[in-house]
Amino acid sequence: MDTQVLIVGAGPVGLTLAIALGRRGVRCILIEQKPAPAKLPKMERCNARTMEIYRRMGIVEKVRAVGLPAHCPMDVFIVTSLIEPPLLHLPYPSVAEARAQIAAKNDGSLPLEPYQLISQYTLEPLLKAIAETLPAVTVRYGCTFVSFAEGSDAVTAEVENADGTLARIAARYLVGCDGGGSAVRRQLGIKLAGEANIMQFRQALIRCDDLYARISIGKGRHYHVADGKATFLIVQDDTRHFTLHASVENDAEMAAMFERTVAMPVDYQMLYVGEWKQNLLLAERYGAGRVFLAGDAVHLMIPTGGLGMNSGVGDAVDLAWKLAAVLEGWGGPGLLAAYEIERRQVGERNVAASGFAARGRRAWRAEYRPCIRDNTPEGAAARAHLARVADREQRKSNEMIGAELGYRYVGSPIIWPEPGEGPPHAFIDYRPTTWPGARLPHVWLKDGSALHDRLGEGYTLLRLNGARADTGALERALRATGAPLDVLDIDDAVARDVCGRDLLLLRPDLHVAWRGNRAPEEPERLAAIVTGRIL
Ligand SMILES: Cc1cc2nc3c(=O)[nH]c(=O)nc-3n(C[C@H](O)[C@H](O)[C@H](O)COP(=O)(O)OP(=O)(O)OC[C@H]3O[C@@H](n4cnc5c(N)ncnc54)[C@H](O)[C@@H]3O)c2cc1C
Questions:
Q1: Which ligand 1 atom is the nearest neighbour of the CA of 178?
Q2: Mean pLDDT computed over 275-303
Q3: Measuring from each residue's beta carbon to the nearest atom of ligand 1, which residues come in under 6 Å?
């Protein structure tokens, strides 16, 4: 066996998976067809949940260090150009401001970490460098996955090296993180269902060193142009690069569109122009046998709302602890079976959330009128009307904290089934809950530390409010499975209030597996369920 896990694709998802596995000491080989990370424009915002995950992985400050500086506003504007008064200005806190808000509030409603603007072409080389420091991880660029064959205890992949030679890599598990065109998914015969090729855009990556400093209408990250061409200028992490999206006929028109949007003389370089398509697609399955799929290989979303990569990071960390548990010998077969059940429903909800956000954007764009820039009463009315509609509809893209933090694994076989419906899923509103399956809300403890930071890499039995219950039977049952377990006593009224129960059993990914005010009546059954020993 060459390795324990073979990961195909070093996009943000494959790289995050490699780091998450490597930190747990799982040996993995990550192969990537490109010779090196490319400077191509794609995502630019890690959401709050991804940053919480990166905090647990110990890399959050590294990500922030190369991302947009903490003081830069994250505002969103709807404009006719960068020199005319904005039609709409939606202010959003900079990372520094968001951190101050998080520090000042302690009711579980905010994430532990704010979002971070970081361009995908900055994030990928950083994650690659981090992965390469982990002894358990081997990263091979210039190595293309060709096909695989599955045996009873291994998967053997055929790969093609940069010099055209073919080689085989045998692994216990194979994970396809190879993006929307996933060759791994195609070999499994798994189809994507939903809406493909909804709209087509051109995207340009532009270097323009002094533009950001010269924007006098207000600093932000997104400038949507009300122009009937869906033109959209995005500030990248160093504030010297910009991406421009527009619905135009050819590449050459992108330069004219940029000049029209900035409307001031600037020196600039077009580094890249390409086409991309909007899709809302979900894979029918998230893998088969010893082969799993994650990220864009299983869900393709419209970037509106920024849920694409962020959903994939969630897939990666979920799969990582389950694979590690099985490879370490304490995870039962139900753990890996639960990957698809838990993550596919998140993929489905996030594809829907991205459709909801995209429809909102289309709704205000539909209010564009050719007279919108005219200095006439009709022009003023068109601007005011579009701004009114956008003030409602554009927010859908930027305020989906419910989708980001509020996802909960429903009907999972490795979560104790609490009777009842559970709180509703909402895209916009996030209401903290410890309903089994939910992410543990963030709470500051009396000593100033964050509850999340007190939780280890395995399961945690959290005993709040003086821990009056005798949890010995549950501890013994869990330890008998070989699963790593910490018992944590926290005497903190706010934490008890936010968590809503005296006892919580938390999984390695900080999702609630069980909760109660008394020790569980069937501790062996609970331990078997959460470690995947009951199919
Ligand atoms: C314009 C735009 C803006 C976006 N903005 C955001 C945003 O703000 N937030 C967000 O969360 N998402 C955003 N997204 C989506 C985000 O970019 C994707 O969801 C993300 O890249 C998916 O990551 P991934 O690792 O799953 O796949 P990919 O990034 O597609 O990576 C797959 C990797 O696999 C490699 N590969 C493919 N086939 C093989 C093979 N046979 N062998 C070896 N390697 C292979 C590829 O070269 C590639 O490096 C945006 C997308 C676009 C187009």
A1: 34
A2: 97
A3: 8-14, 31-34, 42-45, 120, 144-145, 177-179, 183, 203, 276, 295-296, 303, 306-310, 312
